[in-house]
Design goal:
With about 160 residues, the chain is α/β, with parallel strands linked by helices. It contains six helices and five strands; from the N terminus they run βαβαβαβαβαα. α4 links the parallel β4 and β5. The N and C termini lie far apart (about 45 Å).
């Protein structure tokens, strides 16, 4: 069984993330969405909320692709998480050259820690290259329209979160 790990904070999950998940799902039999517990980033949504969003958004993708897609919270090293879930490949999405420079360093470190796990890069679809969760949150916080960047349930969650603030 080919198992892939697609890690991130997913705060919140965007159309760019969903595009990478859809494309990665056809490459593996099981795709684990590694939801990073990064207390330093101070996420807008709790871990439980982010996992719930991922599960809701990925249910239909799993049916469409025939690939099992599961959310898996993690707080350890990415390479250790990959080993924990039995992943042979780490999937990373690239938007721009700046992403590549960072990812290039990460691949080198991960290979030094465990050379049996490969990293595969998927270029973001041109329609989604500008999408970043940080920017989506900022647009939503300032009352902007995020419909092009997230699904309706995620948009509603953003609106609710910022209406409460």
């Amino acid at each position: 069984m080919r198992i892939g790990l697609y890690p991130g904070t997913f705060d919140p999950i965007t159309m760019g993330h969903i595009d990478i998940i859809r494309r990665a799902a056809v490459l593996v039999d099981r795709l684990v969405i590694g939801v990073a517990i990064n207390r330093d980033k101070g996420p807008l949504f709790s871990l439980e909320e982010r996992v719930g969003m991922i599960e809701a958004e990925c249910a239909s993708l799993s049916e469409q692709t025939g690939t099992e897609i599961v959310a898996h919270p993690f707080e350890n090293l990415l390479i250790d998480c990959a080993s924990d879930v039995g992943a042979q490949v780490i999937v990373r999405g690239l938007r721009a050259v700046a992403d590549f420079e960072y990812e290039y360093q990460m691949v080198g470190m991960n290979r030094a820690l465990n050379s049996s796990i490969e990293t595969v890069f998927l270029m973001a679809d041109a329609r989604h290259q500008a999408i970043a969760s940080k920017l989506v949150k900022e647009i939503a916080r300032l009352g902007g329209d995020v419909r092009k960047f997230v699904t309706p349930p995620v948009r509603d969650a953003l609106i609710t979160r910022f209406d409460q603030g």
